[in-house]
Amino acid sequence: MVNRIVLLVLDSVGIGALPDAKAFNSEGANTLGNIVKNHPDIDLKHFIKLGLGNIKGIDYLPLEKSPSASYGRLMEYSNGKDTTTGHWEITGIHLDKPFKTYPNGFPKEVMDEFEKRTGKKGIGNKPASGTKIIEELGAEHLKTMNPIIYTSADSVLQIAAHEEVIPLEDLYKMCEIAREIMTGENAVARIIARPFKGNLGSFERTANRKDFSLSPQENTVLDFTLDAGYEVVGIGKIDDIFNGQGISKKIPSKSNKQGIEKTIAAIKENTEGIIFTNLVDFDSKFGHRRDPKGYKEALEEVNRHLPDLLNSLKEQDIMIITADHGNDPTYPGTDHTREYVPLIVVGSGVKQGVNIGTRNSFADIAATISELLQVEKPRNGKSFAESILK
After folding, report:
1. Cα–Cα distance between 161 and 171 in angstroms, integer?
2. Each residue of 321-351: b (16+ CB within 10 Å) or e?
3. Which is higher by pLDDT, 129 or 367?
4. pLDDT band at 139 (very low <50, low <70, confident <90, very high)
C-alpha cells in the first residue's frame, strides 16, 4: 500500500525540444543536453543510477544497465511553457489558452488604475531582467520612492522596491492591489513582489520575494487528496503557484539545498498524502540569467544530496522526480523553453528498470497519484501506476 507521494519538481530541467517547440520559439532547445555538452565533466552519477540516461532522447548521458527506478519522459499538453501552466498540468489541469503576456509593457488603463489605488506612479513598465532593471532604475526609485514595475516573457507583473524605501508590508499590499487589477481581460498568472537591498551600483535582491497567483479554475489532485483526509505539504514556491489551493501546510525555502533539507524533514514527520517540492534555483538563478556553469553546479549539488533524499523515504513512500518546462541557458533570450521533461519514479514498492515511455501529458502524474493514494482523479491524465508497481 502507498500512503505518501514525494513529488519533486526540478524547476526548468527540460530534456529536449517538444515537436511543437518552433511555435514557442524553442526549436532546438535542450536544457540538460546543452549543459552536458558544454560541461562534459558534469557529475550526475546518482541521477544516472536511477535511469536518467536511459530516458528516450537522452543520448548525452551514460546508460545504466540496472536502473534503480522506473523512468520515462513527459510531453506538455497545455498551451504554454511557464511555471504555473507546468505545475497545474502536473496536478491535472489542461490549459487550452496560454496566460496573457505583455511584451510591450502594461496598458495605460492598468498603470493609471495602479497609481490611483496605490498613490504611487510605477516606473519602468517594460520586459526586463530583474537584476538589470533595478540597476537601471535604482537611482530614480530611490529619488522618487516609486516602485519599479516590469514583466518578462512569462505571464507576470513584477514590482521591485528597496526594502528601506518601500517596506515589505507596503510592497505586498501593492501586489495585492495589482492582483485585483490584473484579472479578466488583463489577467496574468502571477504578480511577484521583488524586494531588494543595498546601495546604488550594488543592489541585491532579497529572499523576501512573494508571489500572488491566480487560483486554479478547477480541482486538482491536491484538492482531492485533501478531501480524502490526507495532508498536502507544499515546499518552496508551491503554495504561491496554487494560491494556497489544495495545500494544507506551506514551508518556504530559500535555495535548492534548503528545499531538499526541508523535504527530508517533512518525510520524517510521517504524515500521509503528498509532499510537493519545487527546487527553483535552476530556473531563477541560472536559466533566466543564461548561466550554464551555474546551472551545471546546481545540478551537481542536487545530485550530491540525492542519496540522502532517497534514503529518507519510508517503505510506503513513492518519489516522483520531474520538471515543469525547460529554460536552456545556452538558448537565445531569457525565456523558458518548450521541452520534454524527465519522469523518474522510485520507492521500495516500485519496479526497477521499467521504461514508462513517452507520456502525452504532465497530467499523467496526477492520474497516477490519484490511483496510488486511491483518491478522486482529476479530469485529465492517464495513470501509469500499473506499469510501475511491484
Report:
1. 7
2. bbbbbbbbbbbeebbbbbbbbbbbbbbeebe
3. 367
4. very high
Give the domain ranges of the chain: 4-93+216-388, 108-213
All 3 cell numbers of residue 171? 510592497
**153, pLDDT greater than 90:** no
- Enumerate the H helices of 242-363 as residue ranges: 256-268, 281, 292-311
CATH of domain 4-93+216-388: 3.40.720.10
Q: Which residue bears the cell 517596506?
A: 167
CATH architecture of 108-213: 2-Layer Sandwich (3.30)
Query: Which DSSP symbol is given to 305?
Result: H
pLDDT at 154 over 90: no
Chain centroid to Cα 168, Å, comes to: 24
Q: What spatial distance separates the first Cα and last Cα of the chain, rounded to whole Å? A: 11
DSSP state of 182: S
The answer to whether 241 touches 211, Cβ cutoff 8 Å, is yes
**pLDDT 10s digits, 156-180:** 999 999 999 999 999 999 999 999 9
Question: Buried (b) or exposed (e) across 241-261, using 16+ Cβ within 10 A?
Answer: bbbebbbbebbbbebbbbbbb
Hunting for cell 518546462 — which residue is that?
A: 325
What letter represents residue 204's amino acid? E
Let me know: does 302 contact 286? Beta carbons within 8 Å.
Answer: no
Give the Cα separation of 287 and 334 in Å (integer).
Answer: 7
**Cα 103 to Cα 373: distance, rounded to the nearest angstrom:** 42
| Closest by Cα among 123, 115, 102, 98 to 186 | 102
Q: Cα angle vertex 50, ends 44, 51, to 5°?
A: 90
Q: Tell me the pairing of strands 317-322 and 4-10.
A: parallel
Give the Cα separation of 377 and 385 in Å (integer): 13
Mean pLDDT calculated for residue range 11-17: 98
The amino acid sitting at 355 is N
Contact 250, 239 (CB under 8 A): yes
